[in-house]
Amino acid sequence: MESNWANDFYKMQYKFIGNYPEGYHTKAANEILEQAGKPVESMLELGAWDGSLARALSNQVGQITTVELIKEMVEKAKSLNPDNIETVHGSFYDVTIKHKFDVIIYIDGFGVGTDDDQLKLLKNIKHWLKDDGCALIDVYQPEHWKKADGVEMYLNRRDMPHIKRRYSYDFETDIMMDTWWHEKDEKLNSTQYLKCYTPDEIHNLCRRAGLNVTGYFPHGAMDYESMKYHEHASLKECLSYRIKVVK
Q1: Which end of the chain is more exposed for a tag (fewer CB within 10 A), N or C?
Q2: Cα–Cα distance, 229 to 64 (Å, whole number)
Q3: Would I find Signal among this entry's keywords (predicted)?
């Protein structure tokens, strides 16, 4: 399954964001390995962008396979990746992967499509996991995004002074919408749509896929009144949280 918006939005998002600050992916990699809780010989990353996170992990993981939808990002990743990273171009809803992995990661992006699409992906993850493996998946928290409905802001006034975004929320379907555009032409915008799940909802969805949630790791939260980001938040207040799942 490939949502019609995904290819255009993620290409535009990558073009606007460019390179992350130095050390960003190293910190994220260390956090992932700590949450995995064991030595990792093989890893699968879903939605890998240009491979920056995989490269940050590559010194501590024996073999990494990445899957990315955007062709241009795949080509860039292949030009930069070391020999122990294999890059696959395709949608992880229907891509064929023959290997089993110690750890599977899906960092920031879960929720594309319907509940049935998420269930299919979770079943794929179960199939790709070794019996003693685990997966780490970032999930958007609906209680946070309900409060963000209608909020408009600049993406980064210092580094991207002309790029704006607007959050919207569909209260019936629990889908958050994130629209980006250049302030000189709002008509040329692009939007991503991600389904949000409470911890209980994602727990039940994982159970239907044959997976068990063994840990929850909340991320930070945005205060939309002061427009300040707080690095630490509760599981109910956070903008997203990471789950650890096993067979």
Answers
A1: N
A2: 32
A3: no
Residue 83 CA to residue 149 CA, distance in Å, equals 44
Q: Which residue has the tokens 């580094």?
A: 159
Distance CA 85, CA 53 (A): 11
Q: Could you tell me if 51 and 16 are in contact, meaning their C-beta atoms sit under 8 angstroms apart? A: no
* Domain locations in the chain as residue ranges: 4-141+198-222+240-246
Residue 170: how many other CB atoms lie within 10 Å:
14
pTM over 0.85: yes
Residue type, 116: D
Per-residue pLDDT tens digits for 188-243: 789 999 999 999 999 999 999 999 999 999 999 999 999 999 999 999 999 999 99
Judge whether 40 and 58 are in contact, CB under 8 Å: no
Contact 214, 134 (CB under 8 A): yes
CATH topology of domain 4-141+198-222+240-246: Rossmann fold (3.40.50)
Contact, 189 vs 179, CB < 8 A? yes
